[in-house]
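fold-stage: in
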Amino acid sequence: MKSTLETYQFMCDTFSNFSAMCEQIPTYRRMLTLSVILTEFIACTELNRFESMNRESDMIKAGQNASLTNNFLAAITFMDDISNNASLPKHVR
């Protein structure tokens, strides 16, 4: 967070056309800090959590690689092949 505010200060010191924005930074410091925190939090989230794999061995390798960076949540193997069935099993809603 501090580095972002330092970046704004650097821009103010370097570029003269940012003077109007630079004058308003102290007024909006709390809002600016909140937006920086929110932006950094959102950057930590990943929306594409589901990945299909053709083989269980591929899923295991991908899970091992993802666990090295703490991006692994779970792996699910579906045992029954439902591609030839006209409907899902009764216990699946």
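fold-stage: in (second)
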Amino acid sequence: MAQSRKWERGTHSQKKSAIAPSLTTAVEHPTFTDEASRFLVETMDQGALCSDEQGRILMVNEAALTMLGMTREQLLGQTTIDPLGKALREDGTPCPAEAQPAALALQQGKPVRDMMLGCFNEYEQSYRWLLMSAIPQIRPGAQKPSRIFTLFSDFTPYAYVFDTLLRQVGLTEGDSKERLQEFEVIFETVFRCISIYDPQGHIKRLSFPLQRAFQLSAEEAGQQTLQSLSEQFQFEDEEGHVLALEQWPMMCMLRGEIQKNRVVSIRPKDQPEPHPVHITMSGLPIHDIQGVIVGGVMICIDVTDQRGAERCSQRALHALLTMAEAMVTEPQDTGTLIAQTTNVVQPLERFTEVERGLAQLPLGLLDCSCVAILLLNEETQLLSPAIVLSPASDLELLWRNRLEGASLHALLGGDEQIRRFYQGIPLEPATTLFYDQPSYKLVAPISRYQKLKGVLLIDYGAQEPLLSGEDDALILGVARLAALLVEREQAQYERDHAVAELQKSNVRLELTNRMKSNLVSIVSHEFRTSLTDIQGFSEILQRNELNLSEVREYATDIREDAQRLVSLINDMLDLDRLEMDHIQLHLNWLDLNALINEAVARMRRRTQKHTFRLQLARALPILWGDREKLMIVLINLLDNAIKYSPDGGAITVVSELEDLCVHISVSDQGVGIPPEELEHVFERYKRLPFGPETVEGRGLGLSIVREIILLHGGKVWVESAQGRGSIFHYTLRTAST
């Protein structure tokens, strides 16, 4: 009960505390004389008395005499302890003399402020509750106080109601209905927030906030106990932890523990996800004169709306800060919000912070169950969910799946709604979407310059929203911001796309320049060598008398040099056609093993210094491919193996069936390729910077191999280690695939 009085006296306590510091300053001043002391005591609105170092009362004002129920003659000359001999603490227990304000100020030499004591009024033969402060006066050079000024304010009018409550705890069924009605009037008009319990946890009076939380009327509450309520409801602390009955604030209070501003959430046990009622509870036990707990009084304040508003404000503030931070930060992505619309309705792999923050605004402020920002593909009129946010993850997934690939017509449910929508008019919350069961959903257009960009969807489920003008303005504002973001993302995507294309063009240009440089070098060398040989052999034929055998020999040399030039030109033209997709494949059925045998037979006639080993699968399936182009692949790989293999080295060709592909490998015993060069061997005009000095080539053969295999839908790669030879692999799909 006393703790409740402390809560009730707030404004008076503030007034008292405002006076005490100024009085302290005046009392401690060296010029503060007895005349000043008497003037101060006599003119105080509060009760005031002044005592000496022995505790004898020297001065007292009329307010103090009234509160203590004594005359001036009775009081003067007594000690400050005498009239307070029956003093009680706030909890109803006796307060000894040494613990009273004047005695403490005298002992400690410093002020004692705002102590609540119950003082027995001799005239009224009842207790008055006084809020007391005691201020010592210490003269210059003295060690102890010479005067103690005690001030007190009367809180009995506020305590009267609590005394009444104390008697209410002791009411019996035989008491008159008039008395019960009298207490009901007091409770209903003054203390709608007060609950009263007896020591066994029976409810004598249930506050209005708890009636709402427990869904009980005042009459029904009188038939309940805390034990019976614990079977129907659960209490949670501010962190969401469920409290056992022994941890409920009421039970703690009835064990003698003072409860101060404990916030609990109350929800029924039989509802899976009810909205809890948030209650702030303060209370303390009531003791009788012997100090035995005879009940408890608790003040309960419903803070559900306040907590909800706080959470909404926090979410909205967080969303605004996140969105503002993201908007002033240079975007790192390449238009993730818009890029997906080119592929009809592809799901977004990630959300940008700006769009997420924008969707959190209505989610936090409008108390809705789901918010979605949908993008519209203008050609197909299909929707793609850019952002779907909901406090419930299962509801968020449900809406995302439902909106994925939905048409604007299916969402809005009719041509009239679409017409109004294109005019920028939001649909009413009761509009049925998806031809669905009636529920409350609000749909607003995301448009810019009379052009529909998307849809803002706000779902309330079965709960009808009560939207104010400010709410409508918020929804339209979010839709306009979404339109700006869509436009920004579109511009960002187009800019990034242009930058990427420019970078690709620069890379291609650099590669082209490098290839041209290599081409000029190779062509100059190859053409110069061949033309020099042709010119030299021609001059020999022209100037010298040669026999037929010598003429044939020089003619053969001229022919080989001419063939080398023709081969160079053909390779360059083939590679250009391959890379420009101008070459055509002449597909037909073919036996790859037979093709391998033919290619090896050709190469055997070209070299007598190498041996060829064939390890061919016995039953390869027939392939669908270009025989001439695949022969070029084999000839180029075998030619490459011959060039880099030492005299007498073996070249091995293997064919085997792997799953639905034919795997061919050509291995040599040459110098091998270092790891850093492996990824470059198939590049155009690439020649290894090592190997036999006599190796001829233009760096085109392996590039042609790669392009032909890729045209057939196959794969090509190389395995090698320097000094251990190389193995070139390629795969081709069988006809069944």
